[in-house]
Each structure stands twice: as C-alpha cells, then as structure tokens.
Write a structure and sequence with these properties.
mainly alpha; Glycerol uptake facilitator protein; globular
Length: 273
C-alpha cells in the first residue's frame, strides 16, 4: 500500500509538471508567471495528497508515503523496527515504480529539461539554501501533523493540514530546494535522470527536519502523548502501530486504596486534548 501510494504521488507530479512546465504545453504557454504555475502545481499535489490520505489504503497504512515520516514515528516509539524497515523499503520501491510508470507513458515530455522527471534539485541559491529549506519545511510539517493528529478536534483533519502545507511549500519554497520533503520521492526521479550531485541534501535534511519537528512537539506539549502513527486513525481499518487508542484507560482507584503519590490524578489515554 505504501509503495502504491507513493507511486501515485510520482505519477500525479509527473503529469501536472508536464502540463504546467513543458514548453509545448498550451497551459505553460498561457501562464507566464512561475508563481501562478507553482500555485497550480501546489493545488494539484495538495489534492492528490488529500485523496491518498483519505483513501482506503491510506487509512490502513497510515499514509506515511515518506521514509522521513516513518523514521520519525520509529523514533517516537509508535512503529516496530521491522515494520519501519519494510515501510521504508517499499516507499523507495514505490518512488522508483511511479517514476518508471510515468516515464513509460510520457517519456518525451518528462525526460531532460525542464521537467527532469520531476527531480528535486537545489535552486539558484545553491545547496546550502536548499538544505536549510528542506530542513525547515520538514520540521514545520511534522510539528503540524503531530499537533493536529493528537488534538481531538483537529485529528480528523490532519490530512487536510498536511496537504495545505504541501500547497504552500510548492508555491513558495520550491525555488529554494525543489520541495521534496521525501528521500524516496527524490530518489526515483534522480535514478531516472542520473542526478546524484545533490542527493545527499534530500537524504539528510528531511529526516533531520522531521526529527526536529518531533522534538519541538515533545517540548511544547509535554503532557500530550503521541497516540498513533496514522495520519487518519478514526476509521474501520486495522492499525499495526503501537497505538495509544488501543490502550485501556487506567483503572480508577479510590483515594483510600490508591498510592499517596497518585491520589487525585487520573489519565485516560483514549481522550485527546
């Protein structure tokens, strides 16, 4: 499921990039402003992300679609190491397969400049700016996802918040780094185009940024545990994660029988703040 979901991301990105950026495209010829084209690309990819997150497979797998997300939840103790390893493996497989499928359908429009199979590469400000950009947007995304998914009123809309940030990042941050957030999403196009020079940026900055975002969440919301590694938990799909929703509430003790250190204190992990 994770492989298929990320493959869909690459197919969608390839299609909309060809429509919006290829010189032969009537859309590209009719919209000269690059910011407007990036905004349309952002809307397209935000819509794709929402559709995948709330799809049956997205609800079941958790819709990570990104090794950086999976590794962050591993660091937070919400996914078993073996599950995390297979998630990452199949996310990379999905990135490669999605790129290959898009290339098979429209290689003439995707290979070489200006599309480069939607490869993510540093912008005109160079690798340092690209690294900083990827680090920053990755931290912001993970902080937003953890805050929303662990807040009762916001949890059902976590996927919408994440997709909204994707729209903003593509519209405004893409000139710095190409807006990856995702090593597996970057690797597929890099493999197709043999673009290896800046790959280290997209293999280091997104995981580090998301880990920083997770640490920021833990510092800012110490009393709010991370309950699950799914972006959309409240559904009828099986959950394979070390899920806080499945933990029973602690038994309530009367003041006379509870230890003195616990009297007057109760915690129901089934309730989100």
């Amino acid at each position: 499921m994770e492989a298929a979901l990320l493959g869909c991301i690459l197919v969608s990105a390839s299609f909309f990039a060809a429509v919006l950026e290829h010189p032969s495209s009537p859309v590209r010829q009719g919209i000269e402003d690059p910011l407007r084209r990036r905004a349309l690309m952002g809307l397209a990819m935000a819509g794709t992300n929402v559709a995948l997150i709330f799809s049956p497979w997205g609800k079941q797998s958790g819709a990570h679609m990104n090794p950086s997300v999976t590794l962050t939840y591993l660091r937070l103790g919400k996914i078993a190491p073996a599950d995390a390893a297979f998630y990452v493996l199949f996310q990379f497989a999905g990135g490669i397969a999605g790129t290959a499928l898009a290339s098979l359908a429209a290689s003439a429009w995707l290979s070489g400049p200006p599309i480069h199979h939607v490869a993510t590469t540093p912008g005109r400000f160079g690798p340092a700016a690209a690294f900083a950009g990827e680090l920053g947007i990755s931290a912001i995304l993970m902080l937003a996802v953890l805050t929303a998914s662990n807040t009762r009123r916001l949890a059902p809309w976590t996927g919408v918040f994440a997709a909204s940030l994707v729209f903003l990042f593509i519209s405004f941050e893409a000139p710095l780094s190409g807006m990856s957030l995702n090593p597996a999403r970057t690797f597929g196009p890099a493999l197709a185009e043999r673009l290896w020079d800046a790959l280290w940026i997209y293999f280091t900055a997104p995981p580090l940024g998301m880990l920083l975002g997770a640490e920021a969440y833990r510092l800012l919301r110490r009393s709010h545990p991370v309950l699950c590694a799914k972006l959309h938990h409240h559904n009828d799909k099986r959950c394979i994660f070390r899920c806080g929703y499945a933990m029973p509430a602690p038994a309530r003790e009367t003041p006379s029988t509870a230890p003195a250190s616990q009297q007057g204190v109760s915690l129901d992990i089934n309730q989100l703040s």
